[in-house]
Design brief:
Elements lengths: L20 H33 L8 H24 L1 H20 L4 H29 L3 H32 L4 H4 L1 H15 L14 H24 L4 H21 L9 H5 L1 H31 L4 H7 L1 H18 L6 H18 L8 H28 L7 H38 L6 H37 L9 H4 L2 E2 L2 E2 L6
Antiparallel strand pairs: 1-2
Helix pairs in contact: 1-4, 1-5, 1-7, 2-3, 2-4, 2-8, 2-16, 3-4, 3-7, 4-16, 5-12, 5-13, 5-15, 8-9, 8-16, 11-15, 11-16, 11-17, 13-15, 14-15, 14-17, 16-17
Length: 512
């Protein structure tokens, strides 16, 4: 545990604005970028790592699954630790641990070490991610500044996955797959230096209540079972016995977790955090939108490399318009309008614009033009998601008691992580099934090798478009959830809810 040096200089008084907050935001953004990059950067490097370390086709998925299980399963625990221990301490510890795990991954000499390093990355990411977002929540309490800060953070959170594909391609093609791990070390070093020098957590922002151990065990095992169930479904199918067993176990454990949280005095996840209509709607809309977004990354990556025959670097470059759209939507549209219109009037149109972009992509074929169809579709998807995700993120973390900032932030990351696991497994399974059916229906006796190869590629494209149709419907569902559940009037929508009484005492809230 690093020393609690947050008091080496006077911490900001409750309600006071930290004069260093914008410089701190830069280092929080670097840490967030590192975590989000890691979700996709290793995917590009996986084929090279498989050859170098001799991973079997059956085992290679553990490079992804080990990270997802640790990250998704421990997020709520990590958020509670940030509240209890202090977000500054959790932030620095998460950065140090993530850098060490990345160094181990880059130096891995066999499959076991690589899998272990990925799991360790997930453990420290589960501590780092909620600490970063909750620091943002407690540092930026003035409405106009808060909108700008969340715009920047939301742009990074949304675009980081696509940037990871580009960076992963560059590092793998021109250096070595191990650099997709080593690249995290300078990111972490810069963020650690900035955190040590600048972050002084506001007074009174910690939650020193005893740790809810039954809640920790139930939430962690339940989320691990859920994430593994979806990962298993992608590999073995939805009817696999172990897949079904994982889903049943997840349901039992998570229902038990809710029952425990409703009864214990100091719950891991206070139900008031998720039962608020606006905040719960933001969690649901975000998680569902991520299902479609992760599925899209998967399909377009394969489409551009297998069908268009782009190199890894060119594939990454092709995603940059989506990144530009996300940054524009988040920082130039959402952050400017958050104080003028209700969040619902940004989220619903944002998801609908992204859905229009997804609808365009359902038209891809063997010879689709990138500039005429894929480029405008990516711009629309990025613009829409950037506009929608920033107010969703602010609703999800705004208005909570300062002592609950970490767990509220962890719920944002949990919805995204579980959504990503569902999206990868569900949409990939749908696409693979459509491809198989397409090829089986058109295979003829006596087909030549060239004709069979062409049919296989056409089947792949058919599967991609079927998956993208589902992603289109998923974004429409996100828009519907936002339209029905979210009724807040502006940045202070949660203020009254968070100011309710707990155990007969007034509850302080974060100013907006």
């Amino acid at each position: 545990m690093p020393p609690d040096s947050s008091q080496t200089a006077p911490a900001p008084a409750p309600g006071a604005l930290d004069p260093r907050r914008w410089r701190i935001l830069a280092f929080i953004a670097i840490a967030q970028l590192m975590v989000v990059l890691d979700a996709t950067i290793v995917n590009i490097a996986l084929p090279s790592a498989q050859v170098d370390l001799g991973l079997s086709d059956g085992n290679r998925q553990w490079v992804i699954t080990a990270y997802a299980l640790a990250f998704g399963g421990l997020l709520l625990f990590g958020g509670r630790i940030a509240d209890l221990w202090g977000r500054r301490n959790a932030f620095i510890t998460g950065l140090v641990g993530f850098a060490i795990a990345s160094a181990l991954g880059g130096a891995a000499s066999n499959a076991g070490l690589l899998f272990a390093s990925r799991a360790l990355q997930g453990v420290f990411a589960a501590l780092l991610a909620p600490a970063a977002l909750s620091l943002l929540t407690v540092l930026f309490t003035e409405a106009k500044e808060r909108a700008k800060a969340f715009g920047i953070f939301g742009a990074i959170a949304g675009a980081g996955g696509a940037v990871g594909l580009l960076l992963g391609g560059v590092l793998t093609e021109y250096l070595d797959w191990r650099w997709t791990f080593y690249v995290n070390i300078p990111f972490a070093a810069v963020a650690i230096a900035g955190a040590i020098a600048l972050i002084k957590e506001p007074e009174g922002a910690r939650n020193r209540s005893p740790l809810d151990l039954p809640g920790v065990v139930l939430a962690t095992t339940g989320l691990v079972a859920l994430v593994y169930g979806f990962s298993r479904a992608e590999e073995a199918g939805w009817g696999d016995g172990l897949t079904i067993g994982m889903f049943v176990a997840a349901a039992v454990l998570l229902v038990s977790f809710v029952a425990v949280e409703a009864r214990v005095k100091h719950p891991l996840l206070p139900l008031r955090v998720v039962l608020d209509r606006n905040r719960g709607g933001a969690y649901a809309a975000t998680g569902i939108a991520v299902i479609g977004m992760f599925g899209l990354f998967l399909f377009l990556t394969f489409y551009m490399q297998l069908i268009k025959e782009y190199s890894p670097v060119v594939t990454g470059l092709a995603f940059l318009p989506m990144v530009a759209g996300m940054i524009t939507g988040s920082t130039q549209i959402a952050s400017r309008l958050m104080l003028r219109v209700p969040p619902r009037l940004l989220m619903v149109p944002g998801y609908l614009v992204a859905a229009v972009g997804m609808l365009l992509l359902t038209q891809i074929g063997m010879d689709t033009s990138y500039p005429l169809l894929i480029l405008p579709a990516m711009l629309l998807i990025g613009l829409g998601l950037g506009t929608a995700m920033m107010p969703a993120m602010q609703l999800a973390t705004g208005g909570v008691q300062p002592a609950d900032a970490g767990i509220a932030s962890a719920m944002v990351n949990t919805s995204q992580q579980v959504g990503g696991a569902i999206g990868t497994a569900l949409l990939n399974t749908i696409a693979a099934s459509a491809t198989t059916s397409y090829i089986a229906a058109r295979t003829q006796l006596g087909m030549g090798e060239q004709a069979q190869g062409l049919l296989a590629l056409e089947g792949q494209v058919h599967g991609f478009t079927r998956g993208i149709w589902w992603a289109f419907g998923i974004l429409l569902l996100s828009a519907a959830i936002a339209g029905v559940l979210i009724n807040g009037k502006g940045p202070a929508a949660h203020k009254a809810a968070a100011a309710g009484e707990e155990e007969g005492e007034p509850v302080p809230v974060l100013a907006h």
